[in-house]
Amino acid sequence: TFLATLLPFILHIHQDYLAFLALGPGGTPPTFTGYLKVTILSFFALKNPYQPGPTPERFAGCPGNLVALPQRSGPRPCTRGIAPQRQITQKASEAVYERLAAGIEKLSNPKLVVGTSCFEKYSTGLFSVSPAKRTCKGEVCHSHPSDGSMHLTLHPADASIVLKAGWGERHPLARGGWFEQFVPAGFVMIYAPRDEKEVEVVLSIVKAAAWFVGGGD
Length: 217
What we know:
Helix content: 25-40%
Largest sheet: 6 strands, antiparallel
Number of strands: 8
Strand order of the largest sheet: 3-4-5-6-8-7
Oligomer: single chain
Strand content: 5-15%
Order of helices and strands: HHEEHEEEEHEEH
Number of helices: 5
Radius of gyration: 18 Å
């Protein structure tokens, strides 16, 4: 009886661990210890990542960088994981991802530099040279070559616009407070663009993130 109860649990853990590894490289080591860490953090994940978070008092009445965004067509893609967090459906084609990556590269200037992501460790990131808050070395965003999605940090007002227009969702740990040791409160996953027109929308969101991390608030 004990074995009959234990075996399904062990099989579930095994399958869940394989699903974690299938997300690919990210900020968490692809080890069983890394899996256990993410599993523990999952107990604190946001229940509704599509709902904008509370606006901190210091941002009350302060506008963001975005005025509006077109509504993203179709249903939201399926996402999975915490670290790494990845998009499972509606992934970007190789050509569209290359267009996105090139667009991010073009944003580099004396105030923005391209380097290896501090959060992800394996992908390309965009960094503010003089960030308002040196979270992860002033990282503005990083993209995920495996699916075409990205993570970036936004002003609360901009994050709200992105969520309501369907272009992304809050990171599961973007709660603020103690959880800022993992990700900023305004940390958002932006869905992979599906065509060149959507690439331009995503790049406008990246620019808003660069404005915010660089002290635009």
